[in-house]
Design goal:
The chain has 4 helices and 7 strands. It is an alpha+beta fold. It folds into 2 domains: 34 residues, no CATH class; 116 residues, Nuclear Transport Factor 2, Chain: A (Roll). Strands 1, 2, 3, 4, 5, 6 and 7 form a 7-stranded mixed β-sheet that branches. The N terminus is likely disordered.
Length: 162
């Protein structure tokens, strides 16, 4: 079979088109992406995560907002927040006396082009009560740095006393 009109005939041509669309074209598209991560990307993402959470803990919401995109979404306390809503809520609660402490461990990252997926354990406190969160985020390269597109924070319940 040297040549075939894939738009006519016994259906085999359509099968070839479908197979090419399903298996061939994504591979071709993927092969064209050439955006290797730089050696500095993972440390830069980790620094952004820590700077963002440090800003929140010290009630510097202006700094924290600089590290979020205009499309920022977050899940915290089983609630979906859009845009600055999470930061606004935390800021309001801090004005009422809420004290947050964060202790960010190693930030694990996976970087592809201008997108980073990161996750970490945050061992801190809420109003002095020890608290552990498992957190993750999606960050996007913006200019010379990284900003959050998405943040997920899940408080880990304390272990039952033995």
């Amino acid at each position: 079979m040297l040549a075939r009109d894939v738009t006519k005939g016994d259906g085999m041509g359509k099968a070839i088109l479908i197979a090419a669309a399903l298996f061939g074209l994504p591979a071709i598209a993927q092969a064209r992406v050439d955006c290797a991560a730089k050696a500095s990307d993972a440390p830069d993402v980790e620094r952004t995560v820590k700077t963002f959470l440090t800003a929140i803990a010290r009630s510097d919401m202006a700094e924290a907002r600089k590290l979020t995109s205009e499309r920022f979404h977050s899940f915290d306390a089983r609630t979906h927040f859009v845009g600055p809503a999470l930061l606004d809520l935390v800021e309001d609660r801090q004005k009422q006396g809420l004290k947050l402490e964060f202790g960010i461990g190693k930030v694990e990252t996976v970087i592809h082009c201008d997108i980073a997926w990161a996750h970490w354990v945050n061992e801190g406190a809420i109003d002095g009560a020890p608290t552990i969160w498992q957190e993750s985020g999606v960050l996007r390269r913006a200019g010379n740095g990284w900003i959050f597109e998405f943040l997920h924070s899940e408080k880990i319940p304390p272990s039952p006393a033995n």
